[in-house]
Predict the 3D structure of the following.
Amino acid sequence: RYFHFCKLPGRVMGIRLLRFTSVVIIVLLLVAGALTALLPNIKDDKLPNLRREPKPQSQSALDSFTLIMQTYNRTDLLLKLLNHYQAIPHLHKVIVVWNNIGEKTPEEMWNSLGPHPVPVVFKVQSVNRMRNRLQNFPELETKAVLMMDDDTLVSAHDLAFAFSVWQQFPEHIVGFVPRKHISTPSGVYSYGSFELQNPGFGNGDQYSMVLIGAAFFHSGYLEDFQRQPEAVYALIDETQNCDDIAMNFLVAKHTGKPSGVFVKPVDIRNLEKDTNSGYSGMWHRAEHLLQRSYCVNKLVNIYDGMPLKYSNIMISQFGFPNYANHKNKM
Amino acid sequence: RYFHFCKLPGRVMGIRLLRFTSVVIIVLLLVAGALTALLPNIKDDKLPNLRREPKPQSQSALDSFTLIMQTYNRTDLLLKLLNHYQAIPHLHKVIVVWNNIGEKTPEEMWNSLGPHPVPVVFKVQSVNRMRNRLQNFPELETKAVLMMDDDTLVSAHDLAFAFSVWQQFPEHIVGFVPRKHISTPSGVYSYGSFELQNPGFGNGDQYSMVLIGAAFFHSGYLEDFQRQPEAVYALIDETQNCDDIAMNFLVAKHTGKPSGVFVKPVDIRNLEKDTNSGYSGMWHRAEHLLQRSYCVNKLVNIYDGMPLKYSNIMISQFGFPNYANHKNKM
């Protein structure tokens, strides 16, 4: 908020009033300064390589996150989820990416049901594209983005913990849905989950991607996404799929490490069966998984190599929900 | 293995034989060079601050660890555990710290039962001190130390995974036994585990120490330990306890972060009831836990502040032992 100065000539107002105004201003500045000193320490931004244009750094911009939720044909689920997500701790703002082309947003109804804990912005799109959610939105003020699908409910506890984990791994995609690729003797890659063969690095399974439909990542990656080869956008538009695989390629290439850190969710639910719209989501299409394998191979061509790396680190919250969930036989 | 050269004068052997020998040597060198090119990449050492004197950097020194096991009055357990631990993947060498003063080590018997997978060194001590295991042993060639109590059995799977985790967090104590301190309104600290009140940073519990009796840490910390205030050694000697708490203080002070990373063990067992010696370990002494709270407060005095920091990160292995241990309701 900016203070308006009434620029009245000093001679008219009088020196006395000028002096009084100056004193008030000085006192207010001192109070503001004292309040600032009481704020908790700002955490360092550990990502000098992400070239985000410098914005005024408010305290909340570093210790909070922006929820970006794209929505298509499931406004009932969207509103149900917004009621939940608007109250998550450390949430700064919600950006709803409105893919219902030509349809009015529920902004009027939203405002009539205020006040709300945080601002919610409805971004009307001109074309229904999967990659609309990966724009570098000017409304985005925080370093962290939480991206959620419009049919996914994750508990506040999970989100608060995962956000704290992201703050310790800010260059990674920190989220709840792990996936992997495997290579085959022919050199062709396949995409999948636990049902696929383990990649064969010792015991157990590995993951090489964390899906962005339920994850935290650095907002700088949205900026980086705008600078990818055209073929990437063409691929995502052709399939209306794979934007998340592309983001994992981008992050892995940037860091030279596994793109994601998997946080095991305590309570994550898919609400798509609860929708009145009858629309059940892209992943039900028959060709969905085949498309994703196709995308992995195309992206390897586009990026001239396979940048994804494997990880087998699974993070849970110590002592939650069971206060002794780390107990062992010792 | 080194090749012995027979240094016979050329005139006696003949120029032809010399030439043949040279060709053989060159071919062998080329083969060795080709094999080296097939070896996996050496991981970078990420700890420039730990001032360890440069030793010849062999491949194994970076990708393997040294087991340091101190033993007192439980030789039967020691030998049972050595049979297990000598075969752990990535183990470079074992250093047994022999605290049985005046008693012969089992070295003869050990050698008679060879060959063994790795070298085992018995370090005879002159005084039975808890902190004997924290010496900067000249036999130590690896960056990583695995320290185990002589009554603790951890599965090879757990150790292989925890070692890979340590390689990603080399400045932390990566281990299987988390503990915490809590502060009280009086300013006096208390030491304990899950039975103590949560420190109160959001949901769930926190830990601020990882005990070194079942953990990996960087060998540079042994060097740092030699440079601590005399009062630290006096405290450990006075209590015959708390060397692990002191190490956590040291690491936390060095990194400014939580000292430990907790890896949840799948299979960890305490074998002390299996010993024939009747000796049941220091932690059964009535004053054991009180001593440890005492140590926390003394160390805060010695270090002029509380350097320990809390963490609630609990790491497990993705897809092991249950190949779909990350599955959720989605």
Observations:
- DSSP finds ten helices and 13 strands in chain B.
- Confidence is low (pLDDT under 50) at residues 40-56 of chain B.
- Chain B has one domain: 65-315.
- The longest helix of chain B spans residues 15-38.
